[in-house]
Amino acid sequence: MNLVTLTINNRKIEVAQGTFILKAAESLNIHIPTLCYFKLHDGRTINDPGSCRVCVVEVEGRRNLAPACSTLVSDGMVIKTNSIRAIKARRTVVELLLSNHPKECLLCEKNRKCELQSLAAELDIREIRYEGKMSHYPTDNSSYSIIRNLDKCILCRRCETMCNEVQTCRVLSGINRGFSTNVAPAFNSPLAETNCTFCGQCVAVCPTAALTEVNFTPNVWDAIDDKAKVVIVQTAPAIRAALGEEFGLEPGTVVTGKMVSALRALGFDYVFDTDFAADLTIMEEASEFVHRLEHGGKLPILTSCCPAWINMLEHDYPEMLDIPSTCKSPHEMFGVIAKTYFAEKMNIDPKKIVVVSVMPCLAKKYEAARDELKHDDLRDVDIVITTRELAKMIKEAGIDFASLEDDNFDDPMGESSGAGVIFGASGGVLEAAVRTAYEWITGETGPALQFHSIRGLEGSKKATVKIKDMDVNVAVTSGLGNARKLLESIKSGESTYHIIEIMACPGGCIGGGGQPYIYGNIDILQKRVEAIYKEDDNKVIRKSHENPYIQKLYSEFLGSPYSEKAHELLHTHFVDRKYQKMKKYDPK
User: Fold this and answer.
1) Catalytic residue among 288, 332, 439, 535, which?
2) Which of 274, 293, 395, 413 has minimal Cβ neighbours within 10 Å of its Cβ?
3) Is 325 one of the annotated active-site residues of the chain?
């Protein structure tokens, strides 16, 4: 490795050749403010061209200031990050951004979570010296999941890079020129009329409130307040590993018990765990996999838990619609079981039940409105809110979350296995499915299999599992760009696998578009992953088919895995949406 020596703020340092100034300064604990710069979970950075110019520094011998995020170091370079010239330039850049930005911070969705707001405070900007025309665009609220308010866009291009280079959806790009420049779909089309998957990763990286989730918390409050309704809430595996961050708890703190207590305090009638439905999903998905394996069915089987990746498949690969598992996602399975089995046991009219899902994902909002996910003309799930929205409700209710005593989920749909918990991390669904499929095929019972080779934040992972005399090839991807590469290799015949897990969000659901904002902090993402597997390790039951409540559900109601009734309630079909427009979601 070739090293170069340079000086930053009168301090000498040696760094690898090819290092950017920003990275070199970080190694000296020298802070340079940034805005467009963003670090991905795999260590890559986006916006290397340095579009915002907030991070400019003074380099001796250069006439112009240099953007630290995209300027490579060289031997003998002398840099000042805190010169008066650099500080004034940064202030001017931010003042110009603020001069064309709505002054409604108190009412803004990202108030106190906005990077532009934080940067203005850091630079002690108390007035805006520039006045003139402000850009104005109609708000795009056409989709179920994402709201676009271009009045708040600062042209950092993070969303564009995330959409095009990481997720490869290619929905967003810079359009028009000069003062009219904005980042939008082609021809400024509404998101609902594009092939947007609603993964929400654009929302996760947006520094302002130009991109936010559709807020359904008022619908939840109304449902709770309606005495004629029975309001049931379920929480996804990834929620417990991230919710505590919104209340100042250490990242990676598992807050399952406190979360249950908070949901009860909010007024929900029943509090259940989507992990139970994750176990149910494995019963059906593992059955489907074994059936295809033993009867010459279509392989590889692809997991169908992630609605964003299914949306990509329906838009971009409709010729492959026979490959994914036909299983509904866990929260949808829970919804239909709540309105059939649970309603029957508790003697509740299903029409009075409102199922609320707390999800780490914005695409789940879209998924809940799919016409295919209904039974007896009732939606399986009525309302979806994110981790962030739940945190807002808890704060709005004045609940001291950190001081809450732990509580337990309700029965009979609150008990889950470790296999259900690990759905929250990339590789977890596949690992859970193989744990069960292995025992069903071999007839052997033993400790829960652990597949460390398919765990972690790496975007693409593969392994071979020996089941009897068969080598079962498995693959795991997270991030739609990685999924696209895998699908293309399957189409071309280059890759041969038996079972594949695909998650749209980098790192899996723990990095979902509805999770607390971390703005590229990879350490937090890793701590969430560790929390998920820690909960799995601590579970008494670690295989889905050993969950006694799942066994009871089948014996009392469904019959057997993959049965006719299970197909009626727990399976779905997919639709060629290549030329289909979405419709507006209006939850009831």
Assistant:
1) 288
2) 395
3) yes
